[in-house]
Design brief:
globular
Length: about 500
């Protein structure tokens, strides 16, 4: 069956739009640049909708496949495709890009074209990561995500932006170099093939799988980020502009977790089962310890950054309990976290744009002057706690159920995140929003403008829709997850 090159459009429409924004000139043409950026982001999102509408739920394999030679002498191909595991992330990324463009509409006043071009190009290359079925293509897209985010943090970030940008770049680049070695080893073992799906059938020894496992682990663990290679994330979040924090939390952290289900589990099933205890232990440390670290934060952005690390620990825990509840729960949690973390960082951005401080102690009584904002932020705070009927509950419940199938005490330890999540999120919300008006600055605050209300309203609708009726999200992944688990259960030895 022939079809339009939807995945290529999802990748290249935002990239070309970014180039057009740059070509529109300097800040004197800012209105035109904003219009082009919004048009490019909207078109980039619209071309992804047929991926969902035309997706065959019964088909576990790759769909919307595109294949063309790229570097023939090394058997490298421009090979794209999505399955039930990856298709939703292409839609999520494109949706978040639209919101980021709208959110920065009147906030960014200098280098407007470069700002929007960075986000559009980042959106395109991240779609490339989710769609790539060639090892070299995946690596190129995976590494290319570093460049726009480095620029976003380094140019439009806070006072320590250069330090944060360099730390982000060096951590993630160092981890990826070991992945490159692993990819080249698999290329040699497969008889000169970079096709990721060919690698799924390689008869690798347990020793080889173990070495490759750690090669992939460092690259993906830094990106998630997992404890103890998480220290770059709070710095990056604190210094990044609001849009940068939104994309970093909502999409970029997902690239590492996605790598586990695209590479580690299917290519290295024996090592994955042998070392599952290590992944579960690291995940539980992130869930429990990082939750406690979040509890003592005094900076709004740092608190939400540590919250992200804790919630992503839930994702990796779900992947390595090796049952459908756990893996699907981890994927659902990734999508939910994309909505909730984006919304919370946008809420912080709304406050920061008005008061130019992120210190929790500088706020208090915001509900008295910004009631609409306080209502929406309450919804997102509750979703972050895992309140039933919000998206945050669905993934966490599924992962806990998956962990319960493996071991009761494992599920018990994982469930502590609900307690810690409620503790740090609601305590933060109480100090910022409730109580008497803290000072004259808070008394002078103005409620959400239409642009801010639109962005937060769309995310609120997504959080509630997923929480009340998650089937449209979960049914897409059933066949692919079941096929992945069947493949992982078959020993290669």
């Amino acid at each position: 069956m022939t079809h339009a090159p939807l995945l290529s459009l999802a990748i290249w429409v935002p990239i070309v739009a970014g180039l057009l924004v740059l070509a529109a000139g300097g800040d004197r043409n800012a209105p035109l640049q904003r219009a082009l950026a919004l048009a490019g982001a909207l078109l980039g999102f619209l071309v992804t909708l047929p991926l969902y509408a035309g997706f065959d739920l019964a088909q576990p394999g790759m769909q919307f496949v595109e294949l063309a030679p790229w570097i023939p002498q090394f058997n490298v191909h421009y090979h794209l495709g999505v399955d039930g595991i990856s298709v939703l992330f292409v839609l999520l990324n494109s949706f978040i890009t639209v919101l980021v463009v709208i959110a920065g509409w009147s906030v960014i006043g200098s280098r407007v074209g470069q700002y929007y071009a960075s986000f559009l190009m980042l959106s395109g290359v991240m779609n490339g990561v989710f769609a790539a079925l060639d090892g070299v293509l995946f690596y190129v897209f995976f590494e290319a995500t570093l460049i726009p985010m480095f620029i976003i943090i380094g140019v439009w970030g806070g006072a320590n932006r250069v330090y944060a940008a360099l730390k982000f770049f060096l951590y993630t680049l160092a981890g990826s170099l070991l992945m490159l070695v692993a990819l080249l080893y698999l290329y040699g073992k497969s008889g000169s093939s970079f096709a990721i799906l060919d690698w799924h059938a390689l008869p690798l020894s347990l020793t080889a799988q173990t070495w490759l496992f750690f090669g992939f682990l460092l690259a993906f663990a830094v990106k998630v980020p997992m404890w103890p290679v998480h220290t770059w994330l709070p710095d990056a979040h604190v210094e990044a502009p609001t849009g940068g924090s939104v994309v970093l939390a909502a999409i970029m952290l997902k690239l590492g977790a996605y790598g586990f289900v695209r590479f580690t589990l299917p290519i290295l099933p024996d090592a994955s089962r042998e070392l599952a205890w290590l992944m579960i232990a690291l995940s539980l440390v992130a869930v429990v310890y990082i939750g406690l670290v979040a509890l003592v934060q005094t900076d709004l952005k740092k608190l939400i950054a540590y919250s992200s690390i804790s919630h992503m620990g839930f994702v990796t825990l779900g992947f390595f309990v090796f049952n459908a509840w756990g893996v699907e729960g981890g994927l659902v949690q990734m999508i939910s976290h994309g909505f909730v973390s984006a919304a919370l960082f946008l809420c912080v951005g709304v406050l920061y744009d008005r008061m130019h401080t992120r210190a929790i102690a500088d706020y208090g009584g915001v509900a008295n002057t910004m009631p609409r904002f306080a209502s929406l932020m309450m919804l997102f705070a509750m979703a972050n706690c895992g309140l039933p009927a919000t998206s945050g509950f669905v993934g966490e419940f599924m992962v806990i159920m998956g962990a319960m199938q493996k071991n009761f005490w494992l599920a018990f330890a994982a469930a502590t995140t609900l307690v810690f999540g409620a503790a740090y999120t609601l305590w933060m919300y109480k100090r910022v929003v409730f109580g008497a008006v803290a000072n004259a600055q808070v008394a002078a605050l103005k409620d959400l403008n239409p642009r801010e209300a639109l962005v937060l309203g769309l995310l609120a609708a997504a959080v509630l829709a997923m929480g009340v009726y998650p089937l449209p999200f979960t049914e897409v992944m059933h066949a692919s997850v079941n096929e992945l688990l069947r493949h992982v259960a078959q020993s290669k030895l």
